[in-house]
Amino acid sequence: MKTAWKLIFIGVLLLYFAGMALHNDALQFFLKPLLVSTLLGIFISETAGIASPFKKWIIGALVFSVGGDTLLLFANNNELYFILGLVSFLMAHVCYILCFHFIKVKESVSGKWHTAIIVGVYYFFIMSFLIPHLGALKIPVLIYGMVISFMLLLAMHLYDLTDHTTARTILTGAILFVVSDSVLAVNKFYRPAPWGGWAIMVTYMGAQWLLVKGLIRYIKHRRSSDSTAVVP
């Protein structure tokens, strides 16, 4: 079943990008909600039978992401759908934040002040650039920017996990998510680029895949560590 979900994910992803290349809007419309849905299937199948307090937050993040993907399909027809999609993705990031926070506490990882400066500089510059173009959406976008920046900050803190592969995978996923949303914001509010759609989707799917991959690895590694700890 694990292999089946991975094959389905790869198939849906390739078909979706084929739809983009062929400018087939109907194919993209049908497949977009399935992209993260198949990642959810991978996560559930890979962690089946493993009791973990983090699973509910990861599932929540993926479910809200599917909701955001679906709502944004209608954003060109009604601005309300864009706002609802933004809220859905905001909730996805809140779920990732809670997951990263509890991992940070569980692993006794301490934060570093320079990471806050790096994230703060990113937030200041991207928002300074976007604010003149946001109009009535200024407050929602500013709030969303704060939330995704905090998600990135916590992912940077997790870089000190003892399992460096997990740490790098999660951080790379978080960075790609920020890149994807930044390109989306510039594309929507400032000036659309011919390559914008590709940049958004490649980084977005890379982000979600790496976050799921890293968090699956963490949950399995945590189970192995806990099992070893109780062996006399």
Structural descriptors:
232 residues; mainly alpha
- Provide the gyration radius in Å: 18 Å
Enumerate the spans where pLDDT stays under 50 for 5 or more consecutive residues. Answer: 228-232
* Main beta sheet strand tally, sense and closure: none
Supply the number of helical segments. Answer: 8
Rounded mean pLDDT is 92
Oligomeric state of shown chains:
single chain
Structural class: mainly alpha
Count of the domains:
1
Shape: globular
What proportion strand? under 5%
Kindly state the number of beta strands. 0
Through-space gap between termini: 34 Å
Describe the structure.
This protein starts with a helix and ends with a helix. The chain has 232 residues and is an all-alpha fold. The C terminus is likely disordered. Helices cover 83% and strands 0% of the residues. The chain is built from 8 helices and no strands. It has one domain. α2 packs parallel to α8, α3 packs antiparallel against α4 and α5 runs parallel beside α7. It is globular and about 50 Å long. Keywords: Membrane, Transmembrane, Transmembrane helix. Belongs to the TMEM86 family. It is a multi-pass membrane protein. InterPro entries: TMEM86B-like. It is found in: Membrane.
Quick structural summary:
This protein has 232 residues and is mainly α. The chain has one domain.
Strand and helix map with partners:
Elements: H1 2-21, H2 25-46, H3 55-72, H4 79-106, H5 113-134, H6 138-157, H7 164-190, H8 196-230
Helix pairs in contact: 1-2, 2-3, 2-8, 3-4, 4-6, 5-6, 5-7, 6-7, 7-8
Subcellular location: Membrane
Keywords: Membrane, Transmembrane, Transmembrane helix
Transmembrane segments: 7-23, 57-75, 81-103, 115-135, 141-159, 196-216
